[in-house]
């Protein structure tokens, strides 16, 4: 904890680091109650962001009981949302400012896999891998164009050679080498085959990602990672939107990814923010939870 009693600190940044079962959620609830009871901020201008629907629902119930006020998406009361839900709310309200149609459909990861399989004929097993990789890349702020540039650099080394035919040729050559005792030659061919297979797989993935983005644009789809990415783009282009909110609270801060961290920084213009976390409990590290987020928070605020 920084700067004394975190419940009563309602101006400027507040960082709370504590272990499981130490009352982090209780502190959030009591802080919201204090700000409302003392008339410091209006309920609809307070935003609480959690990571899962379950956590957001639990926080909503507890804040509602403690304050006696309605909790929802900010239209009538305190805003308690997941990052994805909050991003979706911003985009439905202001998305036209960045050229988006507001009535978009949200694809959860399972729906996104179905879209890949049905429309792009991607293998079922690869659908899981592709959607996971696309999501993680976006969460880390890595663009499709960067993958395309990487792919072109690798392809340029082969000078327009048909990679699939080259791979088949090497595989045939390897199969006939059992008649020889050239172990070093076999190792070299193994390495070439692996590089070609990897490159072909990257090319297939990049082509699928490119087609997936076009398909989403055509059908007005947004996947989960798009919601964070485009909400950040919106706030970068229209920073005045952040003035809709007076105080931000982020639970499970250790699980924020790069884009979410950037989103928070753009959202908090006044510096009035509390983040709550436990460095020993990151459950989203596999999805790009950002190891440097605590230090970057300190630098930003």
Characterization of the model:
The mean pLDDT is 87. This protein has helices at 24-37, 53-67, 83-94, 109-120, 124-139, 144-156, 163-175, 183-219, 224-237, 258-267, 293-300, and strands at residues 13-17, 46-50, 71-72, 78-82, 105-107, 221-223, 247-250, 273-277. The two termini are 15 Å apart. It has two domains: 13-102 and 225-300, P-loop containing nucleotide triphosphate hydrolases (Rossmann fold), CATH 3.40.50.300; 105-219, no CATH class. Helix 4 (109-120) crosses helix 8 (183-219), helix 6 packs antiparallel against helix 8 (183-219) and helix 7 runs antiparallel to helix 8 (183-219). Helix 10 (258-267) links the parallel strand 7 and strand 8 (273-277). The strands form two sheets. The chain has a six-stranded parallel sheet, with helices on both faces. It is α/β, with parallel strands linked by helices. It is elongated and about 80 Å long.
